[in-house]
Structure formats: C-alpha cells, structure tokens
Amino acid sequence: MDTTPSPPPERASSPEPWVSPSLALNAVPQLDRSVSTASSVSSVSGRSASSRLSDSGIPGRRRGYMRPEGTQFSQSAKNRDSVMNLGTIAHLQYYFARTGLLDSATGRVAKSRKGSRTASGSERLLSEVEGDMSMLSISSSDGAVDQLGEGLVESPVDETGSMNWEENEPMMLPPTVSTYKNTPVYVPPPPDMAILRRELRESLEEATKHLRELEKSFTHSTAGEHTSDIMDGTVSVDAIRQSADAPGWHQIQGLNLLDVATLAIRAAKNYYTAHEEPQRLYAIKSEREIRKELFDVLEVLKRLAIRNFANGVQPSETASIKSWVEGIGKLLDTEEEKERLEQEERESWSWREGDWTGKERERELLFLKSFDGSAEALPEWTDPEKAELPTPFLKALQNGLRLVCLHNALVKKSRRQFEEIKQYHTDTAKPYRCAENLRFWAKAAELRWDIKLDVDVMGVVHGTDAAAWRKFDAALLKWCQGVREEIIKEWREAKNISKTPTLQIDPNYEAS
Length: 512
What we know:
Blueprint: H1 46-56, E1 61-62, E2 65-66, H2 75-78, H3 81-99, H4 101-106, H5 128-138, H6 144-148, H7 193-218, H8 221-225, H9 227-232, H10 237-244, H11 249-273, H12 278-284, H13 287-306, H14 315-348, H15 360-371, H16 392-396, H17 401-413, H18 431-449, H19 457-462, H20 466-496
Antiparallel strand pairs: 1-2
C-alpha cells in the first residue's frame, strides 16, 4: 500500500481585476449589501459621507453655515439692543460664507491640488496614487458619484469643486449701515437758568399759598363767629370740634402741604446744582448753609408724614417751612439785583463798541483795566516802534504774574469757565519762575481761547533782546483782541435770549 501522502489540491487562482464582485455564498444571515467597491475609495465610510451630504446637500447651507430664518421677537425683546443684534450677526455670517471670508478666517479651505514645492524651490510632482485621487475628486462632479456609490459626495470645503450658489433662494443683502437698527439715544439739552428760576419762583409761590391757608386755620376767627350760636344753644361745642376735626381733613391738609413743599425743594435743588455761576450764588449764601436749610425742611416734612398728619400741621412746622421759602425768595432777589448791576456796568464800558481804528492799543488797555484787580494801575500801552524798549507797559507784564491773574479773571466772567490757571508762581524773584508764568499764560490762551501765541519767553525774561519785546507786544495785542471778541459775543447772546413765558398765577387765589 502506497503510504506516500498525496499533494494538496491546487488552490483556485484569484479572480481577474475586471471581474465584478459577487455576493457571499452561503452567508448566514443572507447579506445583500456586502458588495465592495474599488480599494481607492474604500476609506470613505458611510457615516462620514452621510454627514458630508447633510452639510452640503441641504439647500441654504454652505461651508458649515445654515442660512438664518426670520425670527419673531416679542415686543419687550424688540426694545433691547442685545436681542436685535442677533439679526446683525446672522447677516455677517451669511456675508462671510458667501464671499469665502469665513473659510479663510477659520482655515477650512482645502489645500491646493497642485504639486508642492521642495526645499530647493522646485515643484514636486504628484505620485500616481495622488494623481488618481485628484482626478477622482475632480471627476466626481461629472457623474462619479453614481459610479462609485452614493456615499461619495463633493466636499463643501473643496475649492476645486464647483460651488453651486445659483439656487432658487431669497436674496440676502450684505450688512450695511441700514442693516443695524440703532435706537437713537435722546440727550436732553442743558437746563436753561431762566426756566429753572421761573419754575422755582412758581413752586415757592404755590407753597406760600398753602402756608397762608394753614395760618388762617390757626386763628380763632372760627370760634368767634360761632360764639353767638353757642350762647343761644343752637350749635354745640362738640359739633364745632367735630366739624373742624372731620375724618381725613388733617390728612388732606398735610398731603397738600407735603406735595407743594416737595416740589419746591426739588426745584431749588435743580437750580442749585445746574447754576452756571455757583461762586456768585455762594457769595450770597454759603453752600453749607443752603444744604442745612434744605435738610431741615425735609426733616420737618418727614416727621409730619411719620405721625400720619395726626392733629394736623402744627404752627411751628408751618413757621419753619415758611422761613425757608422766604429765604429762597430773598436769595433769588439778591441774585437778580447783582445781575442787573453787572449789566449796567457792562453797558458803561466804552471799549465794547465804537470805531477804534488807529487806537487799538488804547482800546485793549481799557479792556485790561476793566478786569485788572491789582492795586497798581497799568501804565499806558505805547507802540514799541515809537518808544524805547522795554516800555513801562511791557515791563509791568514781564514776570507773567499779572497776565495769569487777568486770564483767571476773564475766565470767571465768561460763560464757559474752564482752563483756569490754578498753579503759578507768586514769588517771581527767580528768572525761571517768570518764564514758567509766561508759559502758563501762553498755553492757557491756546487751550481756552484758541489763540496761538508766539512768545520768546527767555528773551522777555532776560530783557536784552528788542525782537523778543516786539513779539511779546504783538502777542499781547492778539490775545486781548481774541479774548475781548469772545467775551462780547457771549454777552450779546445772553442778552438776546428771549425770556421764557411765566405761568400766570392769580394773586387773589383763595382755596375753596
């Protein structure tokens, strides 16, 4: 018996590459979707392809961006800028996606299919596999999806692929200025002193009327009128007391007084805080005293309200409120009298108007003398071309101290009180202190009056350069003219302001 083992059966050769794959034989369970595709596209999984399909196949979605839909906001949400700006963000995202800015900003743009360059600068040729994949991705838009399977789709971030933007979808314009809905912010104009003073006068007058009615109730006229009736027995004392102390009558009196006094206090506070020249106001009555009087009146009203107006308003409380009202009235009268005197003084100044051709220095000297508070009067301002330098006028202003004081005085007289020189040298024995005072004055002239001065500070301080004195004289003349014109313009505007109409109050008003 031949024990030689027989050779193993020959294995069937592999199928040819062009043979189409068939279903698995005798599979349990039966598999009907196990057909494989070409190995070059086997890396495309079904899940990744479906996710790409969902990202790029849905109309209105491009490169990871979903077209925004119209949103209906509630009425309260429409009034909030943070909510309405959501529509602006959607416009920006859509605009970036359409123009490609979104891809370049996030780095999602696919790399170029061209060959990359080597370190030496030469272009590296693509390998055979890379070339096949590039050709495959390019031909995918020509029907390769149907041949290779429904799992392979065009990448939405592939710049070699054709991006179909011509779909039938509503046009959304790029964001412009009109896209943003900016709610205008209303900024109220600055308060006018004439209006604030009128409101304070009217509120004080209304409070005076109520206080006058309360004082009438403190008299014994009512008891005197009913004396004969009490003697006859027709009216009893209890009935009079009951009529005087009717339920709620004290509360009505107290609430009326609280109302008018609170309005008067509010009008006084607005007038104090918005005053254009608080220093003139505090010269009449100090700020500490004004605040103390306000707090005292508020304390009286507080005690009156805490006890719920029991037993009515007392005479001491009425006297305290009346004293405050009369004090505010006297303050306003004093302030108006000061304004009238200042106006008369302005009208008396001859340098305000007239023809001063050829006499400019004389006019500016009168202007400076009107605001100079020094004990020693300024000397005559002569032309430096016709006199020996330095002239007495220029010599008096050499240290800059007088110019600084003049600047501060003019700032206080103007309506726009800013850029006052607060730090300067009063002891001008050293040359550098005089130079700093002149620099302070020149810089303040530029910041406050918009006048650019050309002054040789060290030349004026040393006093040896004639050109420096001439430049100093020209700078003084320019400064005086500019400041004077602005001051006169402000006074004319304040004078031409029409007076606000006042509310007509009947002086014979009697409370019913």
